[in-house]
Design goal:
two-stranded antiparallel ribbon; alpha/beta; 42% helix; 9 helices
Length: 280
């Protein structure tokens, strides 16, 4: 059996949009049983109106009566990743806060980011990291912990500290990327028999295969543009110079993520420059 790679969002979404797969994964990760049907899971979910100034889309968005689950796939490292995931997490919470009389969200929010790139920076170079938001006094007393959780998962860094059940999921992702033709997966668990069948190369439809190729080509072009930008030695010494470079890149329809990485401008600043260009 050959597996399609889980660092491709088409394959990733095919796997985790399945209710049984998502529920089993979430149970292994949190110990909590979700209650989902196919209609409870959305791909590329957007809020209307957007929360804040950034019109975000969640890769996978699921809800049961008590919980909201956001699952993201991230293949490339950017310096603003924590800011991005934090924004997604709190946007998902804020959308549940309907008015000043209902500050307490009706569901607990879990944001799970799958990282498939290698990194030298914590927490991105850890197999599993979990955020906890609580208060700690100067005397060491803690309290007021938020029930909402944000998880970072990276299958490149599997070690003995990761619980075996969730380690099985990391191993599935790692093997699909690094060893797809002879994957070592825990097929003693029936859920992984189903998972491997879902992402087996010979079960990928023609439409899915075309989308996989399109995304792969886009990633290769993105990497090429990133390399070209570095080779050109773009001078980013002051804000004016960085914005000038960003305007030039926008004029060439370069991706905003690449512009942000090379100019160190955030997404709001890039959107403002784009608006100025459109109104000129």
């Amino acid at each position: 059996m050959q597996l399609a790679p889980l660092d491709n969002s088409v394959v990733f979404k095919k796997l985790f949009r399945d209710p049984e797969i998502l529920m089993a994964f979430f149970k292994d990760l949190t110990g909590i049983q979700l209650h989902l049907k196919a209609e409870n899971i959305e791909l590329e979910k957007k809020f209307d109106p957007p929360i804040g100034l950034i019109d975000i889309a969640f890769d996978i968005f699921a809800e049961d009566p008590q919980r909201r689950v956001v699952v993201e796939i991230q293949r490339v490292y950017y310096t603003y990743l924590l800011d991005r995931f934090t924004h997604y997490h709190y946007a998902a919470i804020m959308e549940l806060q309907r008015n000043y009389q209902r500050y307490t969200p009706e569901r607990t929010v879990y944001t799970i980011a799958w990282l498939t790139m290698k990194s030298e920076e914590a927490p991105f170079n850890q197999g599993l990291s979990v955020s906890h938001h609580y208060f700690k006094s100067t005397s060491g007393v803690t309290g007021g912990e938020s029930p909402h959780r944000m998880y970072l998962i990276n299958p490149n860094y599997i070690d003995q500290t990761i619980p075996p059940a969730i380690g099985d999921w990391l191993k599935l992702a790692y093997e699909s990327i690094e060893n797809p033709t002879h994957p070592t997966v825990n097929l003693q668990r029936p859920i992984f028999v189903k998972a491997t069948n879902l992402i087996a190369s010979d079960t990928i439809t023609a439409t899915e295969r075309a989308a996989i190729i399109d995304e792969r080509e886009w990633q290769e072009k993105l990497q090429q543009k990133r390399s070209e930008g570095i080779e050109q030695g773009i001078e980013l010494g002051d804000e004016r110079g960085r914005k000038a470079v960003a305007r030039s890149m926008l004029a060439k329809n370069m991706p905003s993520e690449l512009i942000s990485e090379l100019t160190r401008l955030n997404e709001a600043e890039i959107m403002a420059l784009q608006a100025q260009s459109n109104s000129a």
